Amino acid sequence: MREDIVEWVGVDMVDWYARADMGGGVIRISEPHVNELVSANFWWLRGNDRGVVVDAGLGVVALREAIPVLFERDPMVLLTHAHLDHVGGAPEFGDRAAHPAEAELLAAGIPASLYGAELYDKLGIDAAGEPVPELMIGALPAPGYDPGTYRVEPMTLNRLLDDGDRIDLGGRVLTVLHLPGHTPGSVAVLEERTGTLYSGDVIYDGALIDNLPNSDVAAYRRSLEFLADLDVSVVHPGHGHSFDRTRLRQLAETYLRGKAQGGR
Questions:
Q1: DSSP of 133-174, one letter per residue?
Q2: What is the per-residue burial (b if ≥16 Cβ within 10 Å, else e) of 193-211?
Q3: pTM for the predicted model, two decimal places
Q4: What is the pLDDT of residue 262?
Q5: I want to staple 59 with a disulfide (CB 3.0 to 4.6 A). Which of 89, 165, 193, 247 is the partner?
Q6: 157-173 pLDDT tens trace
Q7: Cα–Cα distance between 210 and 126 in angstroms, integer?
Q8: What is the CATH number of the domain that holds 187?
Q9: Domain count, the chain
Q10: Sequence-ordered list of residues with C-beta below 8 angstroms from that of 238, at least 6 positions apart, any chain
C-alpha cells in the first residue's frame, strides 16, 4: 500500500454512499468521496413486484454490506453502459441486464483503476494538458484499504436489452431506449407514466464525452437529435443533478451546434 495514502482519513463503510429520496419510490445513490470524472449516480426504483437498480457505481465498497435493504427483493441491475463508474457493483446482483453491444466487455472485465494516470491510460482518455488526479477517491472507504486492489469483476448478463424492450416491475413499466454514441451499447430507460428518463451517460448537465476509443460521434448526434424531441418531465442522469425537459433540449442542442461548427 502506498505510504502517501496511509494517513488519509477513512470513512465508515455505511457512509460511503449518499442516498436521496426523490419521491415516487425512487432513490438516488451516489458516492461523494469519488473524483468528479467517475462519481456517478445510480437509481433504485421500486415496483409492486420487484425493484430495479439502474447502474451500480464503482464497487469500491460492497453494496450488500453498505445498503443491505437494496437486495431484499432480488432486484435487477440494469446497466446503461460498460464503464467502471456504472458497473463496479453489478457483480453483486444475481440478475444483470444490458445491451448486447456491452456484453463482451463486461464478460472480459472492465478496464479499471483508482489511480488517475493508470485509469486515463486504460480508458484512452487524453488529458489535453489538464492535471490528472493522483487518486480517483478522496478518502479511504475503510482503515487500511489499498486502492491498488481495486478491480471490476468480469460478469455475464442474464438479460440482453434492446430498443423498445419493456421491463414491468408491477405498477411501474420501463421502456429501454438504445442511444449509442458514448458507447455502442449505451441505453437509457423511460418510465412513460411519469415522464421520467434515466439517461446514464447519454446526457447529463456537463461536458459530454464522445472521444473514447469506442465512442461514435455520428451515432451520438443521432441519439441527441432523438432526445431533443423526447417528451419527458424530468431526467435523472448518470452524473450530476436532475433537470427538466427544457434543460434536456438545451443540452442536446448545444452539443449538436458544437459538432456542426466543429465539423465532426
A1: PSBSBSSBSSTT--GGG--------SEE--TT-EEE-SS-EE
A2: eeebbbbbbbbbbeebbbe
A3: 0.92
A4: 60
A5: 89
A6: 999 999 999 999 999 99
A7: 12
A8: 3.60.15.10
A9: 1
A10: 40, 41, 42, 55, 80, 86, 199, 200, 201, 204
